[in-house]
Amino acid sequence: MRKSSVFSLFGSKQELQLATLEAAIKQFTDEVWAPVADERPGIARLLALCDSWLAYHEREVMPGGCFLTTATIEFDARPGPLRDAVAACMKRWLDVLEREVALAIDAGELPAAEPADVAFQLNALASAASYGFQLSRDRAVFTRARRSMRRAVDAGNGVE
Predict the structure, then answer these.
(1) Distance (Å) of CA 49 to CA 24, 60, 157
(2) Which among 72, 79, 88, 109 is least buried, having the fewest CB atoms inside 10 angstroms?
(3) How far apart (Å, rounded) are the C-alpha atoms in residues 63 and 142?
(4) Are 29 and 53 in contact (CB under 8 A)?
(5) CA-to-CA distance for 26 and 18, rounded, in angstroms?
(6) Residue 96 in 3-state DSSP?
(7) Euclidean distance between CA atoms 34 and 30, whole angstroms
């Protein structure tokens, strides 16, 4: 099939890219958030979310690594609707992480910290795990990322 034939199903290359992004977001949500959504809010759900997120990368659900990490890097400096959609997606995800961190802090299960900072760290670590594995094919990167995520969440209080 020719590219122009595929684009014609969506109206334009941009519409195809936006539809692809939406499909990747749905898959990410189904694979990462859905399995832990019923966990008790707090540290248990936050750590389960981190583990689910890394497992998503580890299982290579998306060949070539995390679609959202790749899209973020690809479109961060390209103004337009696709960049805006990627930015909105990443904001929603960081908001989810921030909310989960705040719930754990409010429950007294984590030391006081800036939830946005912890969310930023978790996102950076998961992204590093994704591209680190793609570059090295060394699965130890996921063990390292899990340890690092627990340190970021725990701020040194022994959560394992």
Answers:
(1) 18, 17, 19
(2) 79
(3) 16
(4) no
(5) 12
(6) helix
(7) 5
User: 13-28 vs 3-10: helix axis angle to the nearest 10?
Assistant: 70
Residue ranges of domains in the chain, CATH in brackets: 3-154 (1.10.357.10)
Question: Whole-angstrom Cα distance, residue 31 to residue 51?
Answer: 11
Q: At what angle do helices 67-75 and 13-28 cross, to 10 degrees?
A: 140
Q: How far apart are CA 33 and CA 117, in angstroms?
A: 20
pTM of the full structure: 0.88
If you average pLDDT over every residue of the chain, what do you get? 91
CA distance 108 to 55: 27
Kindly indicate the confidence band of residue 154, based on its pLDDT and cuts at 50, 70 and 90. Answer: confident
pLDDT at 141 over 80: yes
Q: How far is CA 123 from CA 39, 79, 147, in A?
A: 20, 23, 14
Residues 127, 130, 134: CA angle, nearest 5 degrees: 140
> Which residues have C-beta within 8 Å of that of residue 3, sequence separation ≥ 6?
none
